[in-house]
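Entry type: protein chain
Record version: 2
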Amino acid sequence: MMTRLFLIFFVGLVLAHAMSFALLFYERYDATKSLMVGDLERELSIAAITLDRLSPAERPEWLMRLSSGNRQYRLGPGEADQPLRLAAARTAVESIRSALSSSYPVVFHAMADDDSFIQARITLSDGSSVVRDIHAAMPPMAAWLPVVLAGQLALLVACAWLAVRLAVRPLTRLAQAAERLDVDQVSPRLNEHGPIEVARAAVAFNAMQDRIGSYLKERMQLLGAISHDLQTPITRMKLRAEFMDDSVDKTKLTLDLAEVERLVREGIDYARSAHGTEEKCVRIDAHAFLDSIVCDYQDTGQQVSLSGEHVAILKTRPHALRRVLCNLIDNALKFAGAAEVCVQDTGPQGVSILVLDRGPGIAAAELDAVFQPFYRLEVSRNRNTGGTGLGLAIARQLAVVLGGSLVLHNRHGGGLAAEVRIPANPQ
């Protein structure tokens, strides 16, 4: 939009400037022509009167006095013998002829090889002729005029660019605010000051943002409340199942209750993950932190290893980060039987922590879809593995709370890489 508006203004200004330049040039041409014709009338009249009063012997000396630069007088009939072909020349000579014909006959002819080279032949009272060379050309344009016109155009273009930027800036801020709008964290509010239309749009956007935040908060509270309230009847059913006689139905009921309990527990975790910003950022020893997570898994006999660069200090929310990494490691162990935690220091950008496995991986078309709550893959990661479809949703939501991101990509040679990107200075 900004480019389009600027092009409209730019083309309009260039056309208007070109018209102004054309009018200025035409006015200058007309004024210069009138001035030159008037000067030529007076000059020819003075020259004719002066030469007519002199004797033929004195005229050559005065011809030198009357001539200077491009103004040349000569005795004789002249060399030009062609009719005038330039319209501007014919208009000018008519005015001169009418001014001089009452006193001295004057005839104008053009040179055969140059239409702009004209000779005016004046017949004096004794019948002799005097020729005045006339070059029908406009005086050259002043060197500073194009510079001034270019400067004016540049100034107009700069003003147009500034005006377009000022007009589009509120829309740009609104678009940026819409892009920053995140369902998982509080987005900054738009400034509600400025022109009436801009202020109204900002107020409407802030109100919409507040409503979205309120709806999401209510959704999370509802999900958490339902999940929490379901724990009591589930516990009662589990106790009752314990008093049942051993049978196939008891085993199936126990498994179903365990699955429902796991779903409820992860529902509570998902609801709580939206409020991870309540945890304060602290500085931790990153290597010791990651090593403790890996050692906890190794103590239970799981194949989890730590590799990569040594990152000394990391500012983050440790509990949220631990839950993210544990979810990713659990997934890797579930589908590959082993996991590798790899750390990469990305410098000013922060730190990348990768959880690598050699499992079946995920189809490229579903790498983003798996982050949706309760989404399950059809083949490799289905209900039979015990998943509820909330693990990756919780992990990504907490990664956003950390100020970073979580991305998945398939590894060369098979397997999945889950990369948690943590900024150097989270908010």
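Comment: Residues 379-384 have pLDDT under 50 and may be disordered.
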